[in-house]
Amino acid sequence: MELTRRDALIALGGLGLPLTAWLEDSEPTATELTSEDIETLLALSETLYPSDVTVNSDFIETFVAGQHQLDSDHTSGIVSALTGVRRASSRQTGRRPTELDPSERGDLLRSMGAARAYPDPDGTSVQQIRYYVINNLLYALYTTPKGGELVGNPNPPGYPGGTTAYQAVSTDE
């Protein structure tokens, strides 16, 4: 399953960003993220997402640009958290996170304590990594209908599935 720009727009609807903002300007708004930041987010999504999910850069760029429209400080938090991930990766492995394989990136996040950290945008570096990177990427996945189906929720918040989506009788019994 591939997540695309369209999926990112659906996830942004769950955040409250009106899609009419995207209709007026079809290109994502410029953010403070560099190409290295986008590559790092893509690499981390490979680690955090189930193996049958493929993410392209349009998904990440569109989701982050939409968040930037809602709150530019959030983008600054993402940049700061990614800097923390890159520093830890360099210190522990001598390589950038994009050069590690997915299991090594998972080991890196666990060794930092990010897997157990309480997400706090104003907390320690590890808490910010959990909030701005890990939780952000997971939110982007699971608030799309494609990602929601992975956990049994094909109609995530903000997705206009209608009453039939939540009133349907399950035939799995």
From TrEMBL:
Instruction: Please list the residue ranges that the record marks as compositionally biased, kind Basic and acidic residues.
Output: 96-105
* Region (Disordered), start-end ranges: 84-105, 152-173
Q: Where is the composition biased (Polar residues)?
A: 164-173
Look up the domain of life of the source.
Answer: Archaea
Give the protein's recorded name. Gluconate 2-dehydrogenase subunit 3 family protein
- Organism listed in the record: Haloarcula salinisoli
